[in-house]
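pinging the channel bc i need a second pair of eyes. not urgent but kinda urgent?? the chain im working w is below, pasted from the shared doc
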Amino acid sequence: MSDSLARFLQEIIAQKFKENIDLTPEKAEFQNVLAKVVNALAAHVVSKLEPAFNTMVDVAQSSLEVVGDQSKYVLTIKSILTETAGQYLKWLTQPRYRYFCDVLVGVLIPRLYSTVLRARRYTETTSQQVLLDMMALKEALVRLPAETNERKAKAFGKLVTREMDRVEGVLKTLASPLESIVPTYVALVPNGSEADFSRLLDMKGVRYPDSSDLVDRYLATTNKKRAELSVAAGVAEGVAAVSSLFSNLTLPGNLVSAPFSTIRARLPGTRPTN
């Protein structure tokens, strides 16, 4: 139940009954139904893009020799998004349409990511072409809400960019030369795994023993990075503990300028030195 409908019902109910009526459960159920409807609308849009996703895989696996303009499947996706978005904008209020855009991004971009991984083989050229296509789609998605509020428009743009970073990171890794593929993957896909990295090597056509050497380098790099982060976290924790100790310590006036040995003797848990 919407707020306006709830207010209308409250107004027409006899005064003596108003205090005994609570429409909160109905309002919550209305919002739940609305969320299901918006999720269904987003899923419907993505289902209409299935032929374009199949074409995207064909492009990735093609023998393309030169990177060109955005692929035809990108134009198809943008056309469907524009058409359906225009319809839904007429049906939904601006806040609910914005909610639809948020949901659509959360459904569509993971679908793009899984489609990137469907291709069995990439060349440097096809990786760059699909990367160009994804950048074009990102620009189209950013404009989807038709948001006039600058702050809200920036927030939506950050959402799209954050979700697309994973897709672009994988494609940039596939497009990179072997000598730089490990640092590229580590930098652009920070939450990657050994299994995912091995899969990308296979998609890039890297075979044993080169693939084994690169996986070893990847593991060595990530293990070193984790160790450095662990040390940094330990240092930060120690600094925080010391800062907390001294922030709660009040020195008597005669100790403010006293030697450290004298102050140390007064600290909790310390013993006087000989």
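so The CA atoms of residues 153 and 180 lie 36 Å apart. and The chain has a mean pLDDT of 83. — does that match what u expected or am i reading it wrong
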